[in-house]
Amino acid sequence: MYLPAISELEPIARAAGRTIMAIYRQPFAVEYKQDESPLTAADKGAHEVIVQALASLTPDIPVLSEESDVGVMQARLGWSRYWLVDPLDGTKEFVSRNGEFTVNIALMDHGKPVWGLVYAPVFDKLWYGGKGLGAWRIEEHGSVAIQTQAHLEGKPWRVVGSRNHLSQATLDYLAQFGDIERGEIELVAMGSSLKFCIIAEGGAEVYPRLAPTCEWDTAAAQAVLEGAGGSVTQLNGEPLAYNKPDILNPWFVAKA
Question: What single string gives the DSSP state of each residue in 126-192?
């Protein structure tokens, strides 16, 4: 089975990042989709860069992006192997200009992410990996292997969560780990798929997501986290399924 070399995908992610940053640095308009999620020229521009580059790199592997048209969304149900892309994950973070947004590219095979890349343009950090392959972070000083770190007895649980989706259901779920007020839980708010990457490199132990996400939001980062030794499952312990008729994910928890 084909698995990409990072030398093939890193230039694509960085090209998308440059497109995003060119818009990020200037005033931009914000549209809203039917589900009220924001959409900008950066989402569209990064989509075009990635889809065209992947079509050139692997013409026999189709691409599904968050910004794909209805025809692609319908055709995907017949695919067993495809690229799954979120060209700009964290558009709310992009709009608020806090830097916590990413480019996500995953290679899918029979309903599973087998390889993934997450790139944060503002921080110029890139994570990649896959289950059974390992995981790495690339930054200014080069590439370093990363690994999850299990919770240490007697230490607070390090929990990463969304800036926009810390619901009462999430707080209720976290009660099993301890009490936030008593310092038994350290909560780190973070946007986009960066939450998975923090766990993958040992900076947190758990990320419960009891709020809506789509398959393109999680696939690439799930591959990175699994490559680093972590897991992503539904609340009942079952694995996340991909390429479902409904593109929405069930609630899930990512763990070290």
Answer: EEEEETTTEEEEEETTEEEE----PPPTTSPEEEEE-SS---HHHHHHHTTT--TTTTSEEEEE--T
What order of strands is seen across the sheet that includes strand 206-209? 185-189, 157-161, 206-209, 252-255, 231-234
- Against a cut of 0.90, is the pTM above it? yes
- Block residue for tokens 């539904």: 234
Whole-number Å distance between alpha carbons of 236 and 239: 9
What distance in Å separates the CA atoms of residue 180 and residue 62, rounded to the nearest whole number? 45
Predicted local distance difference test score (pLDDT) of residue 165: 59
Which bin fits 111, alpha (ψ -120 to 50), beta or left (φ > 0)?
left
Quick: pLDDT tens for 18-33. Answer: 999 999 998 888 888 8
CA distance 88 to 216: 10
Whose tokens are 């921080």? That residue is 123
Query: Which helix (DSSP H) or strand (DSSP E) does residue 247 occupy?
Result: none
- 13-71 residue pLDDT tens: 999 999 999 999 988 888 888 777 888 899 999 999 999 999 999 999 999 999 999 99
